[in-house]
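Much of our argument rests on the idea that a fold can be written as discrete symbols. This step matters because it turns folding into a mapping between discrete strings. The record that follows shows the chain in one-letter code together with its fold in token form.
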Amino acid sequence: MSEQQAEGGFAVVTGASSGIGLELAKQFISHGFDVLIVAEDPSIDTAAAVLSASGRSVQAVRADLATAQGNEAVVAAVGERTVDALALNAGRAVAGRFVENDLDDELALIRLNIASPVHLARRLLPGMVARQSGKVLITSSVAATMPGPYYATYAASKSFLLSFAEAIRYELKDCGVTVTALMPGPTDTNFFDAGGMQDTPIYQAKKDDAAEVAADGFEAMMAGDDHVVAGSVKNRMQTSAGKLLSEPARAAVHAKQTEPQGEKG
């Protein structure tokens, strides 16, 4: 059998009430998977109802993944089932100048964007390793490739996830388990509204379709690729061009997209 495994099985998707996460769940279902979908907000139940129309088994778990208890609730919901695919997608942003942002908001971001993927990977990966079979997709971002002024902890968290995905991928290279980093650019979801980024150039810019990003991510994960820069060609060009710039220059380029317009004057 090739690196791409036969379709079907059981998948866990976090951050699946909307956006890329919901579209990933649709990808799994359309390829014969049953899914367990996770989010904190009540709309996860609505998402489950829509997805269940496919005839596949869909279980919704409402859990705050910024807490250890929330992550353990996901592990408990998985139970003894074999996890064939794990999509660690939940995340959030906090916009604005770091020194002016609420500390609790920043720490909650770190717990959701960083601690939760680490927690769930550590709890669910051992079963994959024991079976010598499994696929993991970790949602990073093109923002991982450069400093991110005006959402500093978000960009830093995505850098962590890219490094984390690539590191554990190497550790598991002989275990029959693959780890893929999904690196979308600006995508048409509620991410920017939820993160308070309405007053930024990136909010007004054209964005990629979440369904297309999810399709790119699913295909790369099933192929066992190490990462995929999803969406438009612009994202790949930005990632490549950024490698030629110094860190201060990268930060300046990024800031032009994320600086609140109210900061100027």
User: Anything to note?
Assistant: Confidence is low (pLDDT under 50) at residues 1-5. The domain at 9-263 is CATH 3.40.50.720 (Rossmann fold). The CA atoms of residues 86 and 136 lie 5 Å apart. The chain has one domain: 9-263.
